[in-house]
């Protein structure tokens, strides 16, 4: 195990003056580059007076947070080099994109991945021009930014990402700059509790840097206005010991920041060394740096008579009318020249050696650390052979298993086989046992650093199952873990995964952009297991019934998203085998935890999952008759059961009707091939669903999704979808499908209503189906359970 970082840097009285001057030069250079990216289209070194044609036609980007981020970047360079630290930084104020780009350009890592943006005057000009410019790079910290694992466009997730990166990385320091606007978000507030799950022996350290520059876009921030004693009480209540840095005089702030970082890192080294050499007596109290510097520091003090630096007006572009307003142009030139670029860059635009004196080299640079390009470190996950866990299926529908419990055995083995590597985690909001995955506890415990009681179960300081009742934090942990080169699974109740809708948006965007960057290596997929689903919320009812996460995900980039609805235990194993091995996807797997019929043996399940959608000939009655009279299709475990039951009723009562039964595992198969890599060609789709026969489709979620995915197909006018209609309550399992018109009796009625020629000759059968639904309503109100013909049903073929 790597040792904790040790102090090898500053002498006892602080840094020597020449080192402070070198840090200040680096900081000034970074500020100059950040401002230049916002404003300059040409004349990067100010070798001639600024003219309007040197200015970008559209001024985009954010200046306000950049000087503070540059200060952090400058000082992290110093301690990384002094202490030979393996460190990354999560930049929470993503609006500070120009600052992080400036830092990576100065350390040379930017030019290594983008050789055309060389570390000279020509490269500086390209750096400036490309920022927030058509064909260029975004204004936020983004996948294009070397050294980043965090898309900063949406605030609130930085600290969760930082802790995810530190898990199982004992030699890694993860610093995290938290903007004071970001600190007001719910996800960030919850993330302060992540230190209760950080194992100082097996995990790395997280050093939060709370950057209080006082303002958001147009308002003051809550934490910046708190009296310092109250803020300290808050941070201590979260389990941190605050170290303060404040001021607006650069050299004084440099000395204070250098001292604060040394103090924080010495504390971290002591805490880790004590835990690793002497054992853990109690949860450590980790340091946090509170950094107070003015918003827009070193920028224009006043513009058009209004104060700017140190106010909310510095948030974005302090001088907006530079091309049209000669006074603004003069102010901009004075501002840029105040950094004395002639001292910072030589005549060719290269950074002078003295300002790079404190910058680390090679992989130690923040822009080049492989942990921030996790695919470089990723190892294949040891997924065991499925034969060991598959359930025997002699004939379809004769036995039942709980699919997620079966999966739990496989996950236990994965957890066991990664015990030494420690690169696999399962996260979830207090639901691992509820979701029938408790087999994991035979291989590992639940991460926990607080006190324990005799009644507690499975809590462990070294555990790799992580539970906290915050879907945001679970998602953030896993994203940080995956992006730094590891594997994982997020298990969640289906209805409440919506809490992370916007987080998965950002991760999907990250993966989409990363795929276009050759230097970004593929990372393990983000895998969701959604269970306790809409159809089996028997005791929780309507509040726990929402299958719409699939709809949300399928709106996103098709090259990234995948959705699977395995109908039984063996298909769930096959899907899990695939998603755990996959790269650069967001995989959503919806599977039940209640007893479910076993339809396919393992070989059949593998073949079916490989197809993504296919016919189940044993359930249909085509018998080689050419095209069927009707297609009964299903996606999802409960819809599959209802379709098979409906097929059985048709076989018994209308044996001359040729019924084709289709099951869909991969929802993206319904899309056209041109719109999704898994989509079917029209020929494939027509062969499966026909071009003109009635298709009755029983779907797990909202029925309009199936229409949206298949609206271009020839058969669409004859497609009738049954699904969840927001008719939820606390009731019996079968009553849920009846209330939403997804039950077997309704499906048979749909076949009769929509198959030409059946409406007249099958009147008696239709009436029988309606009577069964009426009988069901009376039965459940008297007995509180489903009718025996439903509760005791099984497929007899």
TrEMBL record:
Which cofactor does this sequence's record say it needs? thiamine diphosphate
Residues annotated as domain Xylulose 5-phosphate/Fructose 6-phosphate phosphoketolase N-terminal = 16-376
All copies of domain Xylulose 5-phosphate/Fructose 6-phosphate phosphoketolase C-terminal, residue ranges: 593-795
Please indicate which superkingdom the organism of origin belongs to.
Bacteria
GO biological process terms on file: carbohydrate metabolic process
An example Gene Ontology molecular-function term:
aldehyde-lyase activity
Instruction: Output the InterPro entries linked to this UniProt entry.
Output: Phosphoketolase, THDP-binding, Transketo_C/PFOR_II, Xul5P/Fru6P_PKetolase, Xul5P/Fru6P_PKetolase_C, Xul5P/Fru6P_PKetolase_CS, Xul5P/Fru6P_PKetolase_N, Xul5P/Fru6P_PKetolase_ThDP_BS
UniProtKB keywords: Lyase, Thiamine pyrophosphate
Top enzyme category:
lyase
The enzyme's E.C. designation: 4.1.2.-
Q: Does the keyword Lyase apply?
A: yes
Q: Which residues form a coiled coil?
A: none
Q: In which family does this protein belong, per the annotation?
A: Belongs to the XFP family.
Q: What is this protein called?
A: Probable phosphoketolase
> What are the leading ranks of the lineage?
Bacteria, Bacillati, Actinomycetota, Actinomycetes, Kitasatosporales
């Amino acid at each position: 195990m790597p040792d904790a970082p040790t102090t090898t840097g500053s002498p006892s009285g602080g840094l020597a003056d020449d080192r402070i001057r070198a840090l200040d030069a680096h900081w000034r250079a970074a500020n100059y580059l950040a401002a230049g990216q916002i404003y300059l289209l040409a004349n990067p070194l100010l070798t001639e007076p600024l003219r309007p044609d040197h200015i970008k036609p559209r001024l985009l980007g954010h200046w306000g947070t950049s000087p503070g981020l540059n200060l952090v970047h400058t000082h992290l360079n110093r301690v990384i080099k002094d202490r030979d630290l393996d460190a990354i930084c999560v930049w929470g104020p993503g609006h500070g994109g120009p600052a992080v780009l400036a830092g990576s350009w100065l350390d040379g890592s930017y030019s290594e991945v983008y050789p055309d943006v060389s570390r000279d005057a020509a490269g500086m000009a390209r750096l400036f021009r490309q920022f927030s410019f058509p064909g260029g790079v975004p204004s936020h910290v983004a996948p294009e930014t070397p050294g980043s694992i965090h898309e900063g466009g949406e605030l609130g997730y930085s600290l969760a990402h930082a802790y995810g990166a530190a898990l199982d990385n004992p030699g890694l320091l993860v610093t995290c700059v938290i903007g004071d606007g970001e600190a007001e978000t719910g996800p960030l507030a919850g993330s302060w509790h992540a230190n209760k799950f950080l194992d100082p022996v097996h995990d790395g350290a997280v050093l939060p840097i709370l950057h209080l520059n006082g303002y958001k876009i147009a308002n003051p921030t809550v934490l910046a206005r708190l009296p310092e004693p109250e803020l300290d009480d808050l941070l201590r209540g979260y389990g941190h010991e605050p170290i303060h840095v404040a001021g607006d005089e650069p050299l004084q702030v440099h000395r204070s920041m250098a001292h604060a970082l040394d103090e924080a890192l010495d504390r971290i080294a002591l805490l880790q060394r004590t835990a690793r050499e002497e054992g853990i007596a109690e949860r450590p109290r980790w340091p946090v740096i509170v950094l107070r510097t003015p918003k827009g520091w070193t920028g224009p003090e006043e513009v058009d008579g209004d104060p700017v630096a140190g106010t909310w007006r510095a948030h974005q572009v302090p001088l907006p009318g530079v091309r049209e307003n000669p006074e603004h142009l003069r102010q901009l030139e004075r501002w840029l020249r105040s950094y004395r670029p002639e001292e910072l860059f030589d005549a060719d635009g290269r950074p002078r050696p003295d300002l790079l004196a404190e910058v680390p080299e090679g992989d130690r640079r923040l822009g080049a650390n492989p942990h921030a390009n996790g695919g470089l470190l990723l190892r294949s996950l040891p997924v065991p052979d499925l034969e060991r866990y598959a359930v025997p299926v002699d004939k379809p529908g004769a036995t039942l298993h709980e699919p997620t419990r079966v999966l739990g055995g496989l996950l236990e083995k994965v957890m066991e086989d990664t015990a030494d590597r420690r690169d696999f985690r399962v996260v979830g909001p207090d639901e691992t046992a509820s979701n029938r995955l408790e087999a994991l506890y035979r291989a590992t415990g639940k991460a926990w650093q607080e006190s324990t009681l005799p009644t507690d179960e499975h809590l462990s300081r070294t555990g790799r199952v992580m539970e906290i009742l915050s879907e945001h934090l679970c998602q953030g942990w896993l994203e940080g873990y995956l992006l730094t080169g590891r594997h994982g699974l997020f298990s969640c109740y289906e209805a409440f995964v919506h809490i992370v809708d916007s987080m998965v948006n950002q991760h999907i965007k990250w993966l989409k952009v990363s795929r276009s960057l050759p230097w970004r290596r593929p990372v393990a997929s983000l895998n969701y297991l959604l269970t306790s689903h809409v159809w089996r919320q028997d005791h929780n009812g309507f509040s726990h019934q929402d299958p719409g996460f699939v709809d949300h995900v399928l709106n996103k980039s098709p090259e990234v998203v995948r959705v699977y609805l395995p109908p039984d235990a063996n298909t769930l194993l096959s899907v899990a085998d695939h998603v755990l091995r996959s790269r650069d996807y967001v995989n959503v797997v919806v599977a039940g935890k209640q007893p479910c019929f076993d339809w396919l043996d393992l070989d059949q399940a593998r073949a079916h999952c490989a197809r993504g959608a296919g016919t189940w000939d044993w359930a249909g009655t085509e018998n080689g008759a050419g095209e069927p009279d009707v297609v009964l299709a299903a996606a999802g475990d409960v819809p599959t059961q209802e379709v098979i039951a409906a097929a059985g009723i048709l076989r018994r009562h209308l044996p001359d009707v040729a019924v084709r039964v289709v099951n869909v595992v991969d929802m993206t198969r319904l899309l056209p091939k041109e719109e999704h890599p898994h989509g079917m060609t029209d020929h494939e789709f027509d062969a499966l669903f026909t071009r003109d026969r009635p298709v009755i489709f029983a779907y797990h979620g909202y029925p309009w999704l199936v229409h949206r995915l298949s609206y271009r197909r020839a058969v669409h006018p004859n497609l009738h979808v049954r699904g969840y209609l927001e008719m939820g309550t606390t009731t019996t399992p079968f009553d849920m499908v009846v209330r939403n018109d997804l039950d077997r009796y309704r499906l048979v009625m749909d076949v009769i209503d929509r198959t030409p020629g059946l409406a007249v000759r099958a009147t008696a059968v239709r009436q029988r189906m309606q009577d069964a639904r009426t009988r069901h309503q009376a039965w459940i109100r008297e007995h509180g359970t489903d009718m025996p013909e439903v509760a005791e049903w099984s497929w007899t073929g």
